[in-house]
Amino acid sequence: MTDLTSLSLAEARDGIRARAFSAVELTQAHLRSMEAARALNAFITETPQHALAMAREADGRVAEGNLGALEGLPLGIKDLFCTRGVLTTAASHILHGFKPPYESTVTANLWRAGAVMLGKLNLDEFAMGSSNETSYYGPVLSPWRRRGSNVDLVPGGSSGGSAAAVAAELCLGATGTDTGGSIRQPAAVAGICGIKPTYGRVSRWGIVAFASSLDQAGPMARTVKDCAILLKAMAGHDPKDSTCANIGVPDYEKALTRDVRGLRVGIPREYRIDGTPVEIDALWARGAQWLRDAGAEIIEVSLPHTQYALAAYYIVAPAEASSNLARYDGVRFGLREAGSDITDMYEKTRAAGFGREVQRRILIGTYVLSAGYYDAYYLKAQRVRSLIKRDFEQAFEKVDVLLTPTAPGPAFGIGEKSDDPISMYLNDVFTVTVNLAGLPGMSVPAGLSAEGLPLGLQVIGRPFDEETVLRTCSFLEEAAAFKAKPEAWWRAVA
Amino acid sequence: MSAGEGRNGAVIEGTTGPWEIVIGIEVHAQVSSRAKLFSGAATAFGAEPNSQVSLVDAAMPGMLPVINEYCVEQAVRTGLGLKAQINRVSVFDRKNYFYPDLPAGYQISQYKSPIVGEGEILIDMPGGETIRVGIERLHLEQDAGKSLHDQHPSLSYVDLNRAGVALMEIVSRPDMRSAEEAAAYVRKLRAILRYLGTCDGNMEQGSMRADVNVSVRRPGAPYGTRCEIKNVNSLRFIQQAVEYEARRQVDVIEAGGTIRQETRLFDSRKGETRSMRSKEEAHDYRYFPDPDLLPLELDLAFIETIRASLPELPDAKRARFMRDFGLSAYDAGVMVSEKETADYFEAVSKGRDAKAAANWIMGDLFAHLNKAGLEISASPVSADNLGRMLDLIADGTISGRIAKDVFVIMVETGGDPARIVDERGLRQVTDSSAIEAAVDAVIAENAAKVEELKTKPTMLGWFVGQVMKKTGGKANPQAVNEVLKAKLAHVLGG
Amino acid sequence: MSVDKDTVMRVARLARIAIPEDRVLPMAEELNRILAWVEQLNSVDTSGVEPLTSVVKMDLKRRADKVTDGGYAGDLMANAPLSEDNFFAVPKVVE
Fold first, then answer.
1. What is the pLDDT of residue A147?
2. If pLDDT is split at 50, 70 and 90, which confidence band does A228 have?
3. What is the predicted ipTM?
4. pLDDT in tens, B172-229
């Protein structure tokens, strides 16, 4: 038997359907590779018993010929999704011991489609970070290393556990969430695919909230097709989420024609930023060239307010977070530190429960919403956000998709940027605009850096036009023919 | 009619001269909905602790609000009943503060853009004056839970059954000038809410609470500093609280002190207001639009459908009662003060003498209900039965005097007046031979009085009384009068 | 607009996060750096621009007035650090 963990999700699906192997076999193979990869620290909680039970049920349905779209396919779940009876931490100490009595809509959709949960994946605490270094459960190590180096690198973030687990073939696919780039940036850095759907495409119900107007869940997997399959299962109208759109979910797999003839592809000139490594610019130009060669029309467009996106984001996201995280107060769930009175209990609990970056963002968010500063910061940022959204609307009058780099560089070393919040924030420079405007964006691996690290390209689409994004990415994937895999050094460590 | 400004209200005579009281009131009225504003949990009063709490109400991670359409309708309905502006677009904001009975750490409310804008309420004072109180706004918001501080020596207990229940906050202009006006305003508002059916107005169960803002000033001077008396839960307490607080403020100022803007609590046992320690800390609520919700947009048809279904409200009903039934302004005001009273009156007076109906209701019925502490809806005398009793008077079956006795029996037994009259032999004697016999007997027994009558014709009344006595009150007094006059014509002359 | 120690203390109090004395000044510096950086927004002309209120244009979803939830106090208490008789219990609050 071939190594089942190196199959794509689509191949594994077909294998299960053809009864080439069972869901239990497939699950066991992944559990073994998880066990051997503990050095990566990709999982906060492994759920092998749970996984095997689900796999057995899946095999039962296979035997009955009653298969769901993801029947028997083992997935990792970012530990921001609430899973019934299974520890859910958001990688924060404040959710110490929290076992939700409910299942998030997205994961419920996945289980209904027959998928198998392998465990809960590590992330930046409350998804606040771009390197997975802010997790209470320790950093995730990237499976990738610079050529000839054994320096530990970050897997990107905040969905760093998801990216590492998918890249290291610990699961066929994973869920991620993306508030400022948290699916696309780690996907790019880890050499995998990840799509942040249009805001409102996927239900947020049961996902621990970071910034409600920006958060959106999406799939991360090794191929565009795998992402398409997963997105179809995750998406859909949810009456429990007021911001979830009541529109039909297309069959995304059918959109993967790789045909870009006549496609109008915008190149936003403001994404050429001083200090961006030459190899990033070169990769971007190469991507445009592939598209042009295949019959797409490359059009330079302007998104004039791009340079203000990060600043607007770092007002809006902390403001919403400061309010969203007020519920972690030691009263109904999670950590409680003893205090002399109620206020003392709150202050000690939250000081002990939240890590440094989360505290910093809560304080910034509290400050920008406080009396006397609201107009100058929060309202100003929301006005700038309107302008950013308008930029995109105007660009999409001329083009069908936009092509940009995903991240300003390859993976960096653990600890390299963690002392400087702003340089860390700059990792999201190409991705936050998409969240601010609520658009779909996808990263696809497109090449390696000089040091042998993956680099990604991002395709941005119109609201609810994930199909064109996926189609473009399916083309880029084929053109780039990205076949590199990280060497499995972690097995030796284990 | 007079508005708040330039009107002479009650005046407090201080040692340094007269003071005017200025009162504005915020009423929190619970929407009469089955489920909560943003969750499907029940709103019934008096349930087991935390049994009417959803995951949303407990602010579990990842939970999202979805608005109850009925609550929106009731807010619009109330707005229309207050002759107010209905805002086609309104926005839900988060009001952020920490308190154990506020699980999310924020209350969803409407701050900058409420669903209802300016309106008015007219209140009729006993002196005949009609006062206009401006309504500044009405907005929808969530109620908080309940903290119990007296169950344990060192712990407070939190029950979230009320958390998330829909409230309408109705804010008046500072247009009231006396404790009586304040109470009359709340009474009138409660009547309107009950007419509309949007709130049951039950102050004992907390479905209606008032925050009363009181300040004092020299007549005609600018507003003084106000104190807010929180959660006053009866009309009598509102009156007491205003009286106490205004006097307190005058005393403070006249003693050379200044009034500090603060929140105070009314202690109903002592009849005093006192400063609330826990509210001392400067608040900074950091309002911002709730990103989990979208702006609430109302289409014209929605509003007009509600408008078309509005019932006749107290002011219109009062005018009709005066016009159609010839009731005095005062009587009509009493009849419409509660919807149940008005309904009762209309049922009794239908096809009958309306003034007589009003007199019976305001007289014997109210006297009994007050004594028994009953609402008119629980009256032992049904409108139907009271009406039939009026019929018995009108057709001469019983006299007005006997009717009083019949009414007492109806109160005791809840019985049908005709049957009571029959069973107890109370039918009025109109048979002239029986009356004549009684008259003859009285004349025969009182020869001396007959002599007196010659010089004192007013003595005739005494004879009527004697005949009535002899017939056990059942004789028709008019018939007795006529027979007496005929039999004594020789004495009376003319 | 510069954040000083008092401001950090005030904001931390609003956010109910205890900041140890020796962290106050460094936190003030961190916040100042971030705030100075986001103040680049002041150079954007936003006159006449409405703040964004909804990312995706759609009508606010509404539900019917039906009781569909609740009745599981025990489940709610299962994660509570301290509860008694289906009440959440907290250090005594003085009103």
1. 95
2. very high
3. 0.97
4. 999 999 999 999 999 999 999 999 999 999 998 999 999 999 999 999 899 999 999 9
In a domain, A482, yes or no: no
| Range A32-39 average pLDDT | 97
Query: Within an 8 Å CB–CB cutoff, is residue C2 touching chain A?
Result: no
- Please report, for the domain that includes residue A245, its CATH number: 3.90.1300.10
Give residue-wise pLDDT tens across range A428-465: 999 999 999 999 999 999 999 999 999 999 999 999 99
Closest alpha carbon within chain A to B157 = A331
Please check whether residue A140 lies inside any domain of the structure.
yes
Number of domains chain A is built from: 1
For C14-36, what is each residue's pLDDT tens digit?
999 999 999 999 999 999 999 99
Question: Is the pLDDT score of A494 beyond 80?
Answer: no
B432-492 placed in CATH 1.10.10.410 = yes
**Alpha-carbon distance A435 to nearest alpha carbon in chain B (angstroms):** 14
Q: Is A437 an interface residue toward C (CB < 8 Å)?
A: yes
pTM for this predicted structure: 0.92
Clarify whether A158 is annotated catalytic: yes
CA distance B251 to chain C (A): 26
Which chains border C (3 or more CB–CB pairs < 8 Å)?
Answer: A, B
Query: Is A473 inside any structural domain?
Result: no
Domain residue ranges of chain B, discontinuous segments joined by +: 11-306, 310-423, 432-492
Active-site annotation holds for A203: no
- Catalytic status, residue A182: yes
What are the phi and psi torsion angles at A406 (to 5°)?
Answer: -85, -45
